[in-house]
What does this fold into?
Amino acid sequence: MTSLRISQLAARTGVPATTLRFYETAGLLPAERTTAGYRVYGQEAVQRLAFISSAKVLGLPLEEIRDLLGVWEQGVCAAVRARMLPLLAERIADADRRQAELAAFSARLTEVHQQLSTPAPAGGCGPDCGCTATTTGPGPVPVPLSRTYSEETAAGETAAGGTAAETWRQAPVACTLESAALGERIAQWQRITGQATSRRDTADGLTLILPATPELAAEVAALAAAEQDCCAFFDFTLHLTPTALELTVRAPEAAGALLAELFAVSA
It folds into this structure.
């Protein structure tokens, strides 16, 4: 059987070598070693990666994909389908919830934008001017967009005394997008960052100052949610102020190169 080096497998499948190494660590893609220590893969790795990529497109997390692979390896399609159906039903419900959240967020932004577009009251800001952040009345509301990379992992960290809200710090620094999809994602973020009026560095990343439009806020929210489906180590917070839309991005130090590539910051 012809074996493939990691560079050959990456070139043939379009999956970056860094992702292949991560898949091995995550138990998704076994690799043999040569006497010199180089990774080598059998031809079946190509079909295995195709299955993994397909499952990722459907929004399945790595834990579920790893379990699915155990069924897929048995070569019985009916068994794979039986396992996938309830998983996809969960993804549909999750997608519906996220769509509802984004729709509510977009409606809230439109409401605030309309209020801030009316004539300002005389004197300083007051409780009804729209500039004061509240959760029930008019005003800007910060919206955290981070999603845990594994609900089970987050629950375990919380039980152990960790902080589930910052699970992005423990998430593996690896992007699971294929090369073509990664290029498209970079272009999407570059279109967003190109609209920034200013930016400032933070301890864990950066904050972009963007125009305060509901359309742009909804676009950024959707893109940030998509980003965390493949890069759980990113943390996003979107904050609408009276004059601007603030996007704060945080990531572990090890993700500096990817942060720089996506948002054009110093690694």
